[in-house]
Structures are given as C-alpha cells and as structure tokens.
Amino acid sequence: MAIKGGGLDRKSKAASEIPSSSLADIAFLLLIFFMVTTVFRTDKDRPIEWAQAAATEKIDEKVKNILNVWVERDGSIWINDRNYPMSEVSEVVGPLYAASQRHLVISVRADRETPYFYIDAVQKELVSAGVVRVVFATELERQMRGIRR
Amino acid sequence: MGILNQKKTKVSDQIPTASMADIAFLLLIFFLVTTVFPKDRGLAVVLPEPGQETEVSPKNILHIMVRTDGIVDLRRGESTSIQQVRANDLEAIWRHEVTANPNLIAAVRTHPDAPHRFMIDVLDALQLAGAERISLQMLEEF
User: Fold this and answer.
1) B99-to-B18, B75, B106 alpha-carbon distances in Å
2) Are B135 and B122 in contact (CB under 8 A)?
3) Which of A36, A93, B53, B118 has its CA 20 to 30 A from that of B71?
4) CATH number, position B125
C-alpha cells in the first residue's frame, strides 16, 4: 500500500479488488457437486440413541435400496415415518422387498437400550418377509486402545 | 413485420449473463441447505431364508449367551462347563477357537430383556475377529 503524504507515491499495480469474473464458475462447480451428492431424505430420523461398534461398515448398496426400520426403546416400530404394530412388519416390508427385485437392505435402527425381545421379533418378521440382508445400524466406536492387530 | 417498417429491433438477441452467478448461487444455497449426507452404516448380518435350516454338528458350535447385565456366558461345543467373559474378550477367544476348528459357528443367544447394545457388543467383537457364520437367536431357557 502506498503511504499517503511523503514516501513514494507510485501506484500499486496489483488490483485491490477480489477478481469476480470467475465467481460464477466457482459457484457452478459447487452447485454441480451438491446436485450430484444430494440425496433427498426419504424418512425423518426417530429420536434414538445409537449403539456403538468398532466394526461399523458402510452399507454397500444404493441409498434407494436401503429401508430403515426404527425400533424405539419401548418397542414401537417406525417405517417410512409411520408407526406399525410388530405383527405388520412383514406385510409392510414384503411388498417393498419384492418391488426392489430382492436388492433391498434393511437397516435396523434400534435404540441401544431396546430390550432384545423386540429386536428378535423384528428379525423373525423380516425372515418371514424373505429378507436376507440386514444391517444393525451403529455408530463407529473410536478405539482408545491404539492400533488393533 | 412490414417491409417498410425496418427499424432496428432493440431487443438483444443474447441471453443475459449478468444474473447467471446469482442464479447459480441461489441453486447452490438451495442444495447446500437440503443436502443430507446419508449415515448408512452398521453391522451387516445375513438372515436365513424361511425354512432353510441346516443341521450343525454340536461340536462345531460356540454357544454365546448374553445376559441382561452384559456379561457373556460361553459354552464350547458339547462341553457343559460355562465360562463367563466380557464382550471385549470374545474377539481374542474367537480367533483362538477358530484356528483350532475352522468350521466353528457362533450361536449368539441373547436374553429377551438384555439391551440391544450388549448384543451389538458381542456381534462387534465377532465381526472384528472376522467371524462370518453367526447365528442370532433369543435365549429361551435361562
């Protein structure tokens, strides 16, 4: 910057403004990134506390082929934002499973304190619906014991 | 238009580009706000198909019983002695047992009142140890 009054009064040749000609390009780049990565949510999250597991893996299936079955602490079941009694789970999941050409993966999202009785009941319903691939949704557990293996 | 009426048209024949950046930012902000990165992660298991039950030789089964307090009762094959372990220890136990018997199957049976997370802890330990044949059931006699 030139010092006013005294000193050299040469004008700086560097522009003092942020160049705005590439602004649109940057905006479009970001726009395309978000358009490509956006997946519109299919159901709302239920308020559950996640169980933690160190072996947590990403589900190897397209997002549209994943069906969330929420199991709350009191054993209530939520599928696609609707509450269903336990006995209807197989009737709800069965047609969806057939419609996906047996590609559907069920993500069982159960609260960490849910009694196993309900999980087992859900599991039996899923077996009778013919579902094979099931994932117990968990959060990745950070290991504090250093590197494994 | 008439032939005589040859005034130059004042409408520009180019798409105005001045507002392009604004439109792009508008869309960008929309997608920024609506984006939810999916959190689809967990422990994968394969359920048996209906009516597909296989007989397993009792000596190839490692019985793992999860109690309501999270303590795990371990029973090997045909023996009747029960060992009490923690879920974390199962990883090492499985690695040790499976080298002795590669056909080993983990039969995890959980008490109906035990919280879900204790079963997850056991499943986690088994998957970390590389176990693939895991059967999940509810504990019936206790």
Assistant:
1) 70, 17, 14
2) no
3) B53
4) 3.30.420.270
Residue B115 maps to a domain: yes
In this structure, the number of other CB atoms found within 10 A of the CB of residue B59 comes to 12
Q: Is B120 exposed, middle or buried (0-12, 13-18, 19+ CB in 10 A)?
A: buried
Q: Which of A114-118, A120-124, B36-40, B135-139 has the lowest mean pLDDT?
A: B36-40
Separation CA B72–CA A4 (nearest Å)? 80
Residues of B in contact with A28 (CB under 8 A): 24
Domains, chain A, in order of start with CATH, read: 52-140 (3.30.420.270)
Identify the residue with better confidence: A149 or A110: A110
Q: Do B31 and A31 touch (CB under 8 A)?
A: yes
- Cβ of A116 and B116 within 8 Å? yes
CA distance A27 to chain B (A): 6
Entry pTM: 0.73
